Amino acid sequence: NGPRGPEPLAPWNVLCYYAEEISLRVPLQVVTTPISNWSEKILEKLHIPNIMAQDVPNLPPDYYTCQFHTNKLERFLGHENKDTFFKTTQRHQILYEILARTPYGSLKRGEVGIGRLVSEHVLTASSTSYLNITLTDTLIIQILHHYWARWACWRKYQPLDHIREYFGEKIALYFAWLGFYTGWLLPAAVVGFIIFLFGIWLMVTDVAAEELCSSGNAFVMCPLCNICSYWNLSSICYTYKAGLLFDNGGTVFFSIFMSLWAVTFLEYWKRTSSILSHRWDCSEFEEIEERPRPEFTALAPMTVRNPVTGAEEPYFPETQRLSRTITGNMVIILMIAIVLIFLIAIILYRTILSIIIYRSQNRAFSPLILHFLLLEMHRTQTKYENAFILKVFIFQFVNFYSSPVYIAFFKGRFVGYPGNYNTLLGIRNEDCGASGCLIELAQELLVIMVGKQVISNIQEFVLPKLKPAPSQELIDEPDGQPDLSPWEANYQLLVCEGLFDEYLEMVLQFGFITIFVAACPLAPFFALINNWVEVRLDAQKFVCEYRRPVVERAQDIGIWLTILKFISYLAVISNAFLISFTSDFLPRLYYRYTTGSMRGYINFTLSVAPANFTQSYMTCRYRGLRDDKGQPTQDYYHLLAIRLSFVIIFEHVVLLIGRIIDWMVPDIPEEVEIKIKREHYMAKEALAENQSPPSLLWLLFI
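^ thats the sequence. predicted structure below, dont judge the formating
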């Protein structure tokens, strides 16, 4: 059961059989077109020196490829050398395919595959990814360490082709997306910083702020809670001015900018993803090449013909899967209900907020979700992982965003007015602080974008160094020799737990900088700084601290792209309501339009408490547009109509422009479409029974 053992090498005939079985793609011809990325092209057009470029040695060549067929071996590039024809990552995929589909017990109970043996602790690890480590592998890992995983490379491009060559397409696509996202944060951070500087200028020149600060005892405010005392509005002079940093006309422009930025970012990522998936031979992976999961194959009651490939494949009837899916979804409903119960507790008892949220993390629920995902019987690993990601993300979405959503849209909305306060379970509803809810939301986002991210990065840097290595007894050297084989040295590193936590951290961050950006224009700036650090932290973990994971193929970033699209649409609606109902932008605009200046704005926003509230000659004020009886004034209804109209107009205009951007930016660049057509033609020629020269039609096409 320990890690010691021989290093098995698959014979050539086994490699050929499984390469054809799992639809591996092999080279036909070298692609001579130089590889470049979007930022290189932009800097070249602007004639700006590219400080991010670096000459990484041994760049893996790009090939036109097609699916491997044993009987056409002589038509593939490099078929003469059996030792190098299949890449190391392809050999790993074949070995893992064999081990993953080998039964060790009852098929009816799904006792198949090395993955289950490891999960049941029969084996300590599966070592397919570091068997037969070659000189090429050693050279690539040295290149990755020198040109990628060092802090000195913080401003350099990532060597994505080398990452793919060593770790496989799935991990390479994650780092490609992370680098692309970080690069696109730069314009958002610059614009957000300019908006912040505009807020600083507004702090000094704002008429309403000067009116509040110089009011003295003119505005005596009603108590904010049952045990609070009266207070002067002038006491919040500094916090009111600080609120202008985030609550000003510039944030409206920035909200529109970020909504369109999110749409454009996703459209151009789809283009980049299509370029990479074609270059890395994964553009048809999910539709044609991906094999059914071993557990699905073992437990499927019947087989049907695949309409795409024509092959017989295991099949689970939809009626059987429906009941399993419903059972699995009940777990999510239960988890969300628990989080909502905690949210109510947060509203009532703010002092125990951190304890409740901290103890409701997904770690306690992940095994339960995995158990129900096994019941749902998803056909491929991609569908299985997408289902898992969606379920956990729904829970984490409610968990992480519940507090900001409460502050932004619910806190202070149902308070009532002096003498007629609303209560929940006998407790007076929580009101916004003296400076308003938007400044509270900005403070919450600053804590998340600065404090939480700094702590997270420190944990990512320190914790792997504190975790114990595997028990030394399992790798005991009988002759006392200290030198370990490469696979034994790899075994001593930490287990790579996948990419879910890495993606989740970044996608949640994407939500914070888009959904609530109207409250904190500096959020993209802090996200940019964090991600520069995150890229190198993750690189160091994968190169220096994690065992080499099982090489996995992927066509794109999976369901994370769908989640990002959902967040981008939600951000438009969220920012529309933030500007309309939480920000002071529209009340200020309405007052300036009706009076011609901002003089008297503070008095306009305050109402006088009803006579039955005060128990002495003193009168007090509170925020709201109500008369002396507590009823909404005409200005309240005018402003409400303006707010609702703004939401509708903002949402429609931004989404319309977003759809225009979607229409104008094709998902697949024209040069990639030409390469795909050329590759299909070359594959057809290579796999034809009788080799023939290229047709005149193709010569005209190229």
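The radius of gyration is 30 Å.
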